[in-house]
TrEMBL record:
It catalyses: Endohydrolysis of (1->4)-alpha-D-glucosidic linkages in polysaccharides containing three or more (1->4)-alpha-linked D-glucose units. Residues 1-25 are annotated as: Disordered. Residues 13-25 have a biased composition (Polar residues). One of its GO terms (biological process) is carbohydrate metabolic process. One of its GO terms (molecular function) is alpha-amylase activity. SUPFAM superfamilies: Starch-binding domain-like (SSF49452). This is alpha-amylase. Its EC number is 3.2.1.1.
Amino acid sequence: MCGAKAGGPDASTAKQGETTIQGSVTRDGVPVAGYVRLLDSDGEFTAEVPTSATGQFRFYAAEGTWTVRALVPGATADRTVVAQPGGLAEVAIAV
């Protein structure tokens, strides 16, 4: 098990202007426990967090195009997201 906080960093720790990628992982509308990975534009691993009890996750990242990969029992799903400087990118992943 990784040492990251479930759900990712706390939103209260965000710095002014920081780029945030966050969202939730569900299966048939129900939150799913698992892990979410952040991959850069070349597909290289950048970070991983376990989902919270409600399927939530959060990353602070540089601007650019990212792949968010949900890894849950029996399924994997990818979503592409474009993070804007200082913006919030919401990602819903249904597996």
